[in-house]
Target: Small ribosomal subunit protein uS12m
Amino acid sequence: MPTLNQLIRHGREEKRRTDRTRASDQCPQKQGVRPRVPTRKPKKPNSAPRKIAKVRLSNRHDIFAHIPGEGHNSQEHSIVLIRGGRVKDSPGVKSHCIRGVKDLLGIPDRRKGRSKYGAEKPKSR
Model:
């Protein structure tokens, strides 16, 4: 506990907040290369393995990004685009891969929420 005189001389130091978006450099999207493509188990009540990509961004940061949707064609050393958005049941995963851009294909035959998964509009007969 500091004395009053010490507080007058030095004051109190403000607590520094950690920046959650260090890797993105305040950019909405960032490009990166994927060194490996693991799966990871989620936190307690859930159990389906999550498809996760370790991505080395263009600014040399290494992050984990979630690959949304069913199935993906992504392999090692493919180029992906990253957006923000954390995955609640996967600790340390704070971004998503954008489907349908660069080497990561969109989901074919998807009807609902197509813009999030890079799916093209189905041809009407």
Remarks:
- Residues 43 and 89 are 5 Å apart (CA to CA).
- The helical segments are 4-10, 114-117.
- The beta strands are 29-36, 39-40, 50-57, 62-66, 79-84, 95-97.
- The two ends are 77 Å apart (CA to CA).
